[in-house]
Amino acid sequence: MGLIQFILHVLNFLAPALFVALLVPEANRYVLRNPNPRRKRWIPAAIQFAVGVAVLLAGLVLFGVDGKMLTYLALVLAGATCQWLLTQGWKS
Fold first, then answer.
1. What is the DSSP letter of 37?
2. DSSP letter, residue 12
3. Residue spans per domain, the chain
4. How deeply is 30 buried, as exposed, middle or buried, from its count of CB atoms within 10 A (0-12, 13-18, 19+)?
5. Per-residue pLDDT for the chain (92 aa), expressed as one digit of tens each?
6. How far apart are the first and last CA of the chain?
7. 70: how many CB neighbours lie within 10 A of its CB?
8. SS3 of 20, please?
9. CA 68 to each of CA 14, 49, 74, 87: distance values in angstroms, whole numbers, following the listed order
């Protein structure tokens, strides 16, 4: 495997985490009636991305292969839980 193929494999591995990290905080603005406008947008996205990468790596280690639907389900659940914690959803 060459360097370019390796980079493409890594980017394709990280793509679902990036998609969820960008989608969930942005969708949160439309779900909540009064989101915090002073919070920078990239901070929750960066936290979501880190959590997503950790979930994808855990799925890769646990199952031994990438792309299991159970790993993607865990990614979505971890992203939703992370967003709930970031917005302090237990207070509303």
1. T
2. H
3. 3-30+40-91
4. exposed
5. 899 999 999 999 999 999 999 988 888 777 776 566 666 778 889 999 999 999 999 999 999 888 889 999 999 999 989 988 888 777 76
6. 51
7. 10
8. helix
9. 14, 19, 10, 29
